[in-house]
Specification:
Number of helices: 6
Strand content: 15-25%
Number of strands: 9
Shape: globular
Order of helices and strands: EHEEHEHEHEEHEHE
Largest sheet: 7 strands, parallel
Structural class: alpha/beta
Length: 243
């Protein structure tokens, strides 16, 4: 098997996290999902542990429990838990800005750090995939969100730093940067005309991305085919960032 044998996925109850969970499980990985709402996780596909990724003590406990469930230190981690926020910059206060950062950036760090602590203790060589966004590279007029963009830009910087630090342990760290993906968080499709315009002029492949498109990229980065890839950010955006 070229992919992970023991995989932990945050946010695996919906959207991209669920797609990663289902794809990995169908490929033979044993998967444990870390999610605030474990009722969304199909027990036939993966086991689940409830956790708020912004609570450090809870993350430490949840990763320990997940490691027991999965049968040892994970050799793969995907941090897909996140929140999408749309607000005009002039309307954003410090509290809401920090809330987005805590979930998207700090939460990803805490889970990745704790998983890697288990990997290092068990001398397991593995891979971590973090979720960034096309919002880290370009501004948006239709759906502004400086807090969201900042959180995803920080994920890119964090990916590179962790890749450098953890390479000596044989652990690779990469990120995927999705464009407009059809998930429950998508807001663009609330306006069909705006969707058609964006796909016609801003996405060379002229279609929305699917969660399965991102899941495939995550599994590639976790697997042996990406054995010499670390510190990279892989765009999964239909070519939007190339425009």
């Amino acid at each position: 098997m070229s992919g992970p044998t023991r995989l932990l996925v945050t946010g695996g109850g919906s959207g991209i996290g669920r797609a990663v969970t289902e794809l990995a499980a169908s490929s033979g990985s044993r998967v444990v999902v870390l999610d605030r709402d474990v009722s969304r996780v199909d027990p036939a596909v993966a086991e689940a542990v409830a956790v708020d990724v912004t609570d450090e003590a809870a993350v430490v406990d949840a990763v320990s429990r997940a490691t027991d469930l999965v049968g040892g230190a994970p050799d793969g981690v995907v941090c897909a838990a996140g929140v999408y926020a749309v607000d005009a910059a002039l309307d954003i206060g410090a509290a809401s800005f920090l809330d987005v950062l805590r979930i998207n950036t700090v939460g990803s760090f805490l889970v990745a750090r704790e998983c890697v602590r288990h990997m290092v203790a068990a001398d397991v060589r593995g891979a971590v995939v973090l979720l960034s966004s096309i919002a880290s590279e370009e501004g948006a007029l239709r759906e502004p969100g400086v807090h969201y963009a900042a959180s995803k830009g920080a994920v890119v910087s964090m990916t590179r730093q962790l890749a450098v630090e953890w390479a000596e342990h044989g652990i690779r760290v990469n990120a995927v940067s999705p464009g407009v993906i059809r998930t429950p968080m998508l807001r663009l499709t609330d306006d069909p005309e705006a969707t058609r315009d964006y796909l016609a002029t801003g996405v060379p492949l002229h279609r929305l991305g699917e969660a399965s498109d991102v899941a495939g990229a995550c599994l590639y980065l976790l697997g042996g085919a990406a054995a010499y890839v670390t510190g990279a950010v892989l765009a999964v955006d239909g070519g939007a960032s190339a425009c």
